TrEMBL record:
Regions crossing the membrane: 36-61, 73-94, 101-120, 126-144, 156-180, 192-213, 220-239, 353-372, 378-396, 408-431, 451-469
PANTHER family: XANTHINE/URACIL PERMEASE C887.17-RELATED, XANTHINE_URACIL PERMEASE C887.17-RELATED
One GO term describing the cellular component: plasma membrane
Subcellular location: Cell membrane
Entry keyword Transport: yes
Upper taxonomic lineage: Archaea, Methanobacteriati, Methanobacteriota, Stenosarchaea group, Halobacteria
GO MF, any single term: purine nucleobase transmembrane transporter activity
Leader sequence residues: none
Keyword annotations: Cell membrane, Membrane, Transmembrane, Transmembrane helix, Transport
Membrane topology according to the record: Multi-pass membrane protein
Domain of life of the native organism: Archaea
Record-stated family: Belongs to the nucleobase:cation symporter-2 (NCS2) (TC 2.A.40) family. Azg-like subfamily.
Pfam families, sorted: Xan_ur_permease
Protein name: NCS2 family permease
């Protein structure tokens, strides 16, 4: 009997036993089935990025000789590879159940602010992503995390998520034909009753919200596919003219040569001041978004110590930094840890096996690149509105009873959507923080670093808006 039990135990263990030992299933109170289920859940909740990231970046990355669908399919491949590399690093190096991919907000900053508003070539923007990743790796390696966190005002850090949420929502609503700036006002409701795109988008948006509220895994992906189906169905039934709701002919390609390595040419076209600001902003948003996500998800998983810190946080931060560097080299914007990892943690995921499952599923998603290329922009941008609304939850963490918090937090939140720039929002918050602290007689709450950053951003605002940089970026 004992011999049979030993034999059965060994036969059952095999690869499973090796995984259990490597990831420490017993130590974390989990098993292979739970970890795989958690990984599948996390992947379903964040898989929308395979469609949304290419849709956003394609508006900035102009590839000569390639049409829109080919560009999007290239970027989808790059998105998947970057996500897989970062998440595999998280699995094997950090042994945490956190998934990573190119971040929403960071890709919007890349496309609409850096390339769009600043006029920086997309190759140079990719170079900034790579440099940011390398800086992140270096600072993580020397353990400079605590100093960096203390350097930025707390109300600004807490407001960034909400500001990005508003920024994403405006981008999404405009792409869906729901809001417009062409009605004699800065922003106005579009003539949605006359727009098939807006009508289909609104139906799809509320279906997605309903699925999300029900807690259905993959609700955003289902909503995007449902909206896409409505568009194709309306054209097939002859309710609208051909091409009104679909991207027309689509061509997918797996050749990423036009974007992979493009950052190298970007390094030769650098205007120092603007480039440094772009690198700084990428780093700031990435660092604090990742740190906040890691802390929040770790709290749910019971990973935090008695002081509220995540032990060995440098390891998941390093995974993020490696993912960002590799992603920039391949041709995508900054990689970050996804808050959707919380869905896998809720399913019991506690180790890197959850992340390994997510990474494998990302690689399997390469087979569906042609589908991603056929999804119209209005359908993919539903994800921006849904995630943007969800990100409003962060606003409750701000102490709204303290005016010295209200001003910098409010400026951060307002300036992002209204100036159409994440960087300007962060800068406005950083500039206002020491000013209101001084006025309120709370100078002890400020540090020399606060004043130095504020002065640097005042200088930047002047230089940027006075036309000094015109023609240099």
């Amino acid at each position: 009997m004992g011999i049979e039990e030993t034999t059965d135990s060994r036969s059952d263990s095999g690869a499973t036993g090796a995984l259990a030992e490597y990831f420490g299933f017993e130590e974390h109170g989990t098993d292979l089935r739970t970890e795989i289920l958690a990984g599948v859940t996390t992947f379903l909740t964040m898989s929308y990025i395979v469609v949304v990231n290419p849709s956003i970046l394609a508006q900035a990355i102009d590839l000569q000789g390639y049409n829109a669908s080919q560009t999007q399919s290239m970027l989808a491949v790059v998105t998947i590879i970057a996500a897989a590399v970062a998440t595999l690093t998280m699995a094997f190096y950090a042994n945490r159940p956190f998934a990573q991919a190119p971040g929403l907000g960071l890709n919007a900053f890349f496309a609409f602010t850096v390339v769009g508003a600043l006029g920086i070539p997309w190759q140079t923007a990719l170079a900034a992503v790579v440099v940011e990743g390398i800086v992140f790796i270096a600072l993580t390696a020397v353990g400079a995390r605590e100093y960096i966190i203390k350097l930025f005002p707390e109300p600004v850090k807490l407001a960034v998520g909400t500001g990005i949420g508003l920024f994403l929502a405006i981008i999404g609503l405009e792409a869906m034909g729901i809001i417009t700036g062409e009605a004699g006002t800065i922003v106005a409701l579009a003539q949605i009753g006359q727009s098939p795109v807006a009508i289909v988008s609104i139906v799809g948006l509320f279906v997605t919200f309903a699925l999300y509220a029900r807690g259905i895994p993959g609700s955003i992906v289902v909503g995007i596919l449902f909206t896409t189906g409505l568009g194709y169905g309306a054209e097939w039934l002859g309710l609208v003219s051909g091409g009104a709701l679909t991207p027309g002919s689509t061509q997918a390609t797996y050749n990423i040569a036009p974007v992979a390595g493009a950052f190298l040419s970007g390094l030769g076209n650098v205007e120092a001041f603007s480039f440094a600001l772009v690198v700084f902003t990428f780093f700031f948003v990435d660092f604090f978004d990742t740190a906040g996500t890691l802390t929040g998800v770790s709290q749910m998983a019971g990973f935090l110590d008695e002081n509220g810190n995540l032990p060995d946080i440098d390891r998941p931060l390093m995974a993020d930094a490696v993912g960002t560097t590799v992603g920039g080299m391949l041709g995508t914007s900054t990689v970050t840890t996804y808050i959707e990892s919380a869905s896998g943690v809720e399913e019991g995921g506690r180790t890197g096996m959850t992340a390994l499952t997510v990474a494998v599923l990302f690689l399997l998603a390469l087979a569906f690149i042609p589908i991603a290329a056929a999804i119209p922009m209005y359908a993919s941008h539903i994800a921006l509105v849904v995630i943007g609304v969800v990100m409003f939850q962060n606003v409750v963490d701000i102490d709204w009873n303290d005016i010295t918090n209200v001003v910098p937090a409010g400026m951060t939140i307002l300036m992002m959507p209204f100036a159409f720039s994440i960087a300007y929002g962060i800068a406005a918050g950083i500039v206002s923080y020491p000013v209101v602290k001084l006025a309120a007689g709370e100078l002890d709450d400020t540090r020399p670093g606060h004043w130095a950053l504020a002065a640097a951003f005042v200088l930047y605002f002047f230089v940027r808006t006075s036309g000094v940089l015109q023609g240099n970026v």
